[in-house]
């Protein structure tokens, strides 16, 4: 009589190297990490605003991003229907915005804005 040997049962891989995949599991905890850290800003920001008796507002803002500290100072003056807003930042830019309500026609707002130095106008020589 002939006897047939049963095929050997295949052993299950016991290590990640035997399975052919990496041994690291970077996906574990990804959802929890995204929930805690995604869209979370680690910048430190400080803002101080004060108002004068005639209604002028002065705001100083400082932001720390990594090792960089950025600053901005802003003043806003309102007189009847005209508002003047001046901002200066740590990049030596001065941005002025003048807004006039009902200047040309009732319900029409006129806005004039300009920056100094104007990067498109050329070099500023002291």
UniProtKB/TrEMBL annotation:
<comment type="similarity">
    <text>Belongs to the eukaryotic mitochondrial porin (TC 1.B.8.1) family.</text>
</comment>
<dbReference type="InterPro" id="IPR001925">
    <property type="entry name" value="Porin_Euk"/>
</dbReference>
<dbReference type="InterPro" id="IPR027246">
    <property type="entry name" value="Porin_Euk/Tom40"/>
</dbReference>
<dbReference type="InterPro" id="IPR023614">
    <property type="entry name" value="Porin_dom_sf"/>
</dbReference>
<feature type="region of interest" description="Disordered">
    <location>
        <begin position="1"/>
        <end position="23"/>
    </location>
</feature>
<feature type="compositionally biased region" description="Low complexity">
    <location>
        <begin position="1"/>
        <end position="17"/>
    </location>
</feature>
<dbReference type="GO" id="GO:0008308">
    <property type="term" value="F:voltage-gated monoatomic anion channel activity"/>
</dbReference>
<protein>
    <submittedName>
        <fullName>Uncharacterized protein</fullName>
    </submittedName>
</protein>
<dbReference type="Pfam" id="PF01459">
    <property type="entry name" value="Porin_3"/>
</dbReference>
<dbReference type="GO" id="GO:0005741">
    <property type="term" value="C:mitochondrial outer membrane"/>
</dbReference>
């Amino acid at each position: 009589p002939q006897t047939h040997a049963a095929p050997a049962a295949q052993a299950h891989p016991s290590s990640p190297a035997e399975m052919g995949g990496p041994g690291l599991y970077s996906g574990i905890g990804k959802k929890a990490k995204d929930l805690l850290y995604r869209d979370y800003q680690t910048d430190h920001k400080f803002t101080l605003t004060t108002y004068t008796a005639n209604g002028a507002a002065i705001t100083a803002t400082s932001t720390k991003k990594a090792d960089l500290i950025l600053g901005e100072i802003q003043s806003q003056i309102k007189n009847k229907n005209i508002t003047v807003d001046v901002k200066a930042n740590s990049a030596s830019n001065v941005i002025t915005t003048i807004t006039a309500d009902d200047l040309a026609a009732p319900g029409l707002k006129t806005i004039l804005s300009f920056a100094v130095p104007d990067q498109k106008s050329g070099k500023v020589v002291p």
